[in-house]
Amino acid sequence: MTISLPNPASASSEEVKPTKKILCYGSPYLAEFYDIWIGLWDDTAFYSECLSQIASHTPPSEPVVVLDIGAGTGRITHALASNLPQHIANVRLLGLDMERHMLERAATLTDPAHADKISWVLGSACDLESVPAFRDEGLRADMMVFACGSICHLNVPGQAEQLFRGIASVLRPKTGKAYISVLKGGSSDNGVPDQMMTKPPPAEFRSRDFKDIIYRDTTTVLEVVDDIWHNTRHIVVSRVLEDGSERVVEDNIAEVKAKIWTEGELRRIAKAAGLRVVDIVDRHNDCRDELIFVFEVDV
C-alpha cells in the first residue's frame, strides 16, 4: 500500500495538549523529531555499496527488490534511491514501517525523480509475507535491511522468530542477503556498556519544518532488567508565541523496551528459520557502534 499524505505543515492546525504514553513516533511532530535525532547515523554509504554488489547477481529479467524494514521516515530508502549505480535500471524499493506518521513523512520527503521506484508499506516486521510485493506479486527480496539496531524492539518472545521466518520466506535463495543491525550496546556478549547506563543530558531541538516549534527531550529512566533495556524519555513539543512565551503542543512519555541480544541467540533463531550467517560487519557510527549480521537462505 502506497502512502500519500497532506503537507506536514497542516499539523500545526491540530494542536492538542495531551500527556500520553507512546511506543513509537505517532504524530507528525514526533516523526520530524525522529529525523533530527537519527541524523547522526552514517550507514547509508555502506548499504548503497552492498546494493551495488547484490544487484550484479540478480537475473537481468527481474527487478532488484530491496526491503527496508522499520524504514521510519525513509532515511535509508531515500539514500539507496539517490545512490543507485547506472547499471541498476530496474529496482523496487520497499519501505516498511508500522507507524503511519513516519511513512507519511517519508512520502513527503521522496524526491519526485525516485517516486516510481519507491513504495511505502504500512506493516509489521513480524509479518513480512504480507507485504503486497511478496504476497500478491510473488517477488523475492534481493536485499533486506533492518538498520540502527532496530531488532532490539522485538522484545516480546516469539517476535524475532517471526521476523526470521519471514526473511527466509521472501529472501531470494542463493543470492539474496539480509542485513540485521545489532547495537554493540544491544548485545550482551561483552556485558552492558557504560553508555547504555549513562543518562544523556536534556536536549533541545528547533523544528526545521514547523514554524516556531521546539522539541525538548529528557531521559527519565535508564535501567536493565534481565535482558531488557528500559529507556523512558519525556518528549515535549512546544510552540513559541509572539510574546516569547511557550505553549505545549504535545507532551509525550516515550517508553522503549529493547531486547539485549547475544550472537548465539541470533544464530540459533536464524538457523531454525532456515537462514545462515555469512558475515558479521563491525561498524563505527558517529552516534553508536553496531554489528551488522548478514544472513542468506540456507539452501
Automatic annotation (TrEMBL):
<dbReference type="InterPro" id="IPR041698">
    <property type="entry name" value="Methyltransf_25"/>
</dbReference>
<feature type="domain" description="Methyltransferase">
    <location>
        <begin position="66"/>
        <end position="173"/>
    </location>
</feature>
<protein>
    <submittedName>
        <fullName>S-adenosyl-L-methionine-dependent methyltransferase</fullName>
    </submittedName>
</protein>
<dbReference type="GO" id="GO:0032259">
    <property type="term" value="P:methylation"/>
</dbReference>
<dbReference type="InterPro" id="IPR029063">
    <property type="entry name" value="SAM-dependent_MTases_sf"/>
</dbReference>
<keyword id="KW-0808">Transferase</keyword>
<dbReference type="GO" id="GO:0008168">
    <property type="term" value="F:methyltransferase activity"/>
</dbReference>
<keyword id="KW-0489">Methyltransferase</keyword>
<dbReference type="Pfam" id="PF13649">
    <property type="entry name" value="Methyltransf_25"/>
</dbReference>
